[in-house]
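Hi support team,

I'm opening this ticket because the web form for multi-chain structure prediction keeps timing out on my end. I have pasted the exact lines I submitted so you can reproduce it. The total is 234 residues across two entries, so I didn't expect it to be a heavy job. Is there a limit I'm missing, or should I split the entries? Thanks in advance, R.K.
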Amino acid sequence: EAGVAQSPRYKIIEKRQSVAFWCNPISGHATLYWYQQILGQGPKLLIQFQNNGVVDDSQLPKDRFSAERLKGVDSTLKIQPAKLEDSAVYLCASSVQQGANTGELFFGEGSRLTVL
Amino acid sequence: AQKITQTQPGMFVQEKEAVTLDCTYDTSDQSYGLFWYKQPSSGEMIFLIYQGSYDEQNATEGRYSLNFQKARKSANLVISASQLGDSAMYFCAMREGPRGSTLGRLYFGRGTQLTVWP
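Hello R.K., no limit was hit. The queue was backed up. Here is the completed structure from your submission:
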């Protein structure tokens, strides 16, 4: 079974530029998450989708961040314009609600963003 | 208030020894789940073990076990017979809601960096 795919793995941009990250979840996983992990901290949820609907985007800085999950499969996270404090690893994860399973999240390798 | 607190920024253990990584949580919900993830230097988060709030037994998965003390709101991870490959960042996380539910937000702690030395 293929895991969560993310691209690009690394991106370096200057402040005020824009960037987009792509995520393809595990096939059949209805729930997709974008997390931001700043160096030395735990991941923080930015946005959570259930199929193509937003479940939780309360911590998404909506003046500069946007995300979509058209057709309920893959997703794109965009930052425009980027700030220095956006330097972080952006982790995509997916999960499936199935019987008595734990509902654990399966993570991709992350996209590391450096804003200069 | 922090939902998840991990008070040990770093831990060191000798190969083949056991180590306990601490985690306390804060919730007023009766139904919740606790997770531990491992993050090696490569960056990917790897799921290790899960404990549901209504589970009567402490969870175990191979060399990993979860010491769940509900009244104290603690969910410590115990790694037995440490291996060099266990060196990584370890995160405790919690989601409020019934077992298997994917709708609730998963809250993470700040992590504990474990170093296993020969």
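A quick check on our side: The CA atoms of residues 22 and 73 of chain B lie 11 Å apart. Let us know if the file doesn't open in your viewer.
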